Amino acid sequence: MNNSRETKSQTTMEWEAFYNLEVGEKLPFFQQNQRMLDVVFAQQFDRPFLDFICSLANQIRQLARTKMGAEHLRNILPHKRAMLYFVQPSTRTFLSFLNACQILGLNTSEIRGTTTSSEVKGESQEDTIRTFSSYVDMIIVRHPESGFVEKTAWVLNQTERRVPVLNGGSGPDQHPTQALLDIYTLERSFENQSGLDGKSIAMVGDLKRGRTVRSLSYLMQNYRDVTLYFVSPQEFRMKQDIKDHLAKKGVKFTETDDFESVLPLVDGVYMTRIQKEYSQAPDSESDYYPDFFFRKEHLELIQSHCVIMHPLPRRFEIEVDVDKDPRAVYWKQERNGMWLRAALIAYLFGVEEKIMEEFK
Amino acid sequence: MNNSRETKSQTTMEWEAFYNLEVGEKLPFFQQNQRMLDVVFAQQFDRPFLDFICSLANQIRQLARTKMGAEHLRNILPHKRAMLYFVQPSTRTFLSFLNACQILGLNTSEIRGTTTSSEVKGESQEDTIRTFSSYVDMIIVRHPESGFVEKTAWVLNQTERRVPVLNGGSGPDQHPTQALLDIYTLERSFENQSGLDGKSIAMVGDLKRGRTVRSLSYLMQNYRDVTLYFVSPQEFRMKQDIKDHLAKKGVKFTETDDFESVLPLVDGVYMTRIQKEYSQAPDSESDYYPDFFFRKEHLELIQSHCVIMHPLPRRFEIEVDVDKDPRAVYWKQERNGMWLRAALIAYLFGVEEKIMEEFK
Amino acid sequence: MNNSRETKSQTTMEWEAFYNLEVGEKLPFFQQNQRMLDVVFAQQFDRPFLDFICSLANQIRQLARTKMGAEHLRNILPHKRAMLYFVQPSTRTFLSFLNACQILGLNTSEIRGTTTSSEVKGESQEDTIRTFSSYVDMIIVRHPESGFVEKTAWVLNQTERRVPVLNGGSGPDQHPTQALLDIYTLERSFENQSGLDGKSIAMVGDLKRGRTVRSLSYLMQNYRDVTLYFVSPQEFRMKQDIKDHLAKKGVKFTETDDFESVLPLVDGVYMTRIQKEYSQAPDSESDYYPDFFFRKEHLELIQSHCVIMHPLPRRFEIEVDVDKDPRAVYWKQERNGMWLRAALIAYLFGVEEKIMEEFK
Questions:
Q1: CATH architecture of A2-174+336-350
Q2: Using the beta-carbon criterion (under 8 Å), do C90 and A118 form an inter-chain contact?
Q3: Is the pLDDT assigned to residue B115 strictly greater than 60?
Q4: Which C positions 261-300 lie with beta carbon below 8 A of chain A?
Q5: What is the ipTM of this complex?
Q6: Cα end-to-end span (Å), chain A
Q7: Model pTM?
């Protein structure tokens, strides 16, 4: 058995060595023929890609409006099959990806929760993943563990069936498609004001732990002359790593805990969930921070073109009555996620031309 | 926070005020351009609609017999996506709706049970519903709470994405598609005897709590010269509200607890589940009522054209050996539910002409 | 009630009488027009059928390589709907069947686990099955009970909707599609050495309880001049029934517990799971048998064309480093299962000609 153990620990070392690399060093590993094959990190997206994917999402959205366009879309990938492997339940992200697949005509298999997984029989994670890849052409993964999606892509990239792996949220850090759909929503909201370049955005709430605002802040380096306002209680301030990164890349930012003073200054307000740290399962408003709560009266403070965003689900961050204001775009933002994910899937299969050609 | 609480309770008031209206006053709210948009109550169906939907179900059933017809059907709604939101498990109704969607080519998303719902994260029901509507074009809901489906439709009808909502059973009262499929089965069974008009129907079992027989009795007002026999133990007699309604509409009915004496008189026997009230989880025949049990020997008592129906699942209401008699139509009734639901979905999307044109 | 009880027990008798027949006597019952309608037992497959189904699987696999071929396949059965009724969870078999259906364009309904089944309401198994058959055109069943799938087919064959039933694993004995995919993998692996005829195969592990090796051994009677090596610890030797059968059919076999000595002699090594009997939930290598473990060093002992197979999932039967050797075909074997199952489904619907015609 010694021989076996040695080999195993050697394999383990290889993964660990890879895992400990800087993100930048890992990126080529998730490419094939100079093109993104797996979507693992928000760091994989540069400005040309962001512009391209937003434009592709726009085309898909527009095509889907007519029956003829919708049928064209459904004939893009009817010969492909995707698996949605959602070990961590997330109805919202699951439905967004599932419907994105359906828009393009892909067939789907679902594994939701762990109870139905073959892991019960004591199979290794690597073998389970290889099994999934035996049947389908793409795997979309959501998992509570940091690094799980990365490992999935890493494992499959060493096999004969190197199918694309799409990160649907992996642990507390990585959720790259959320960052993409936020960018898409900002770009769309400002399409009559020359886009996101030059805009001021307030990010409000728990900036310390919120992976959404962290990823979105990171991507701001791709836009010219953006100003960020980090609005949070002292204990939830944005961490130093992101602030260092922004400083290095020349993205302006300001930190404050005065929510209302920032509102008139910005083009967008990105609200996020925030709750008292001791509160494990909060169920009343008193567990939340009333000073970081967007109320109806605040609609009078923001500019006429300023958009209000939220990654959802919300609890006490935005008053329900705000929903009816045209500047509240969080429901559109949710639907944008579906278009954006459809665009990303089309891109991973290299069929973007077939979508674009309809407009020539 | 006060401002917020006020607004919330105001919104709640609005829903409660609506909820307490008479059903008749609510109906216009579930229409769009003088056409049914949401299916919430059996009270939404009048005779022209019942005739139309039965005829549409017939066409679908006939088309589905050939490959060419089935492919025509699958090309009716391939550009639409439906969600099946089944908080209360019901395999039968779920499968019936799912296959109805597939017949018309709709793609489907499933939420079954509450564990996978985003409600875990403490989102409001209204937000969960809005999220679902972001991704799909129709929502089919089954829920243990009375009024839940009504509220779903009510919430969505105030948003920008007013997608149709279809009631798949909501609490102890509402299950309109069951009533429709029962009507469809009766009409089909009597198609060589000029339909349901003029027929006598026995309803047997727990008439007090059974939502199926209550809705079906209600719809009888749409047919001329129908006679109902309510056959039940004393403690499970039909409630006064339905009897008052029938009297007002001129539908004849008789009440009795003598099952066998009624059998020779009727054109249809509708059996329903009945069990002793103290019995929470009955598992033996002794918990049931032997005098309201259709046995093989009863086949000799009924007329040669009399049909035997049951909403299923059954336990001890109909002996298994009765199944082989051609007058036992409960398995056809079940399959009729699928055709009828497909017809209803086609109607809600306004594509009935595309189905009918195949026959011109 | 007496009358009812009698009738019930009579029906029960009929099933029990049927169930106790010899397998050979049962086979005609699962046919329609001299053609297999239900797939219940491995004993239903003879050599012409095995050759045919392997050839059909090959065609499907080849067609699926191009978008045009894949679209041809998806137009084979788009007018049919299948149900996957998996009372016993098995992600692997489930995904294999689901994707096989999708390849041919079938729509699918899923019942996984028992909690969502209507059995909760106290319905009989027979009624549940009839309900499923009301909505779909084929039922694929996996169930922990021996004989359950057989009973499903038997029940439906006495109704008006006699839809095909496909055994996806029923109790400890029957898993006919696993046997088929093993045969397919052997035939494919030896396609340049005139196929499985004349080959020597080692079966290793728990031969006593393993249904996979039992079924595969049984099917060997269909091939000329095959030699089997049964390699196991004393306590897990192949049972007498199979050995008697092989002796009667003239299939040569040898029993041994010396794993390494057999390796140089064979054309294929079929590894299976084995664990110490006292060990209920083994989680370490020490619960396994190191002498029946295929390690990297064994690659030097086997012939250059010898294939290594495993039904998966594996734990400590094959070292992970063996995976990279081209003779390790267990991942291909898994994917072969999907092609083979697609072939079987096409056959059950009688559409094999439509697949084959593409190659004329």
A1: 3-Layer(aba) Sandwich (3.40)
A2: yes
A3: no
A4: 282-283, 285, 290, 293, 295-297
A5: 0.92
A6: 63
A7: 0.94
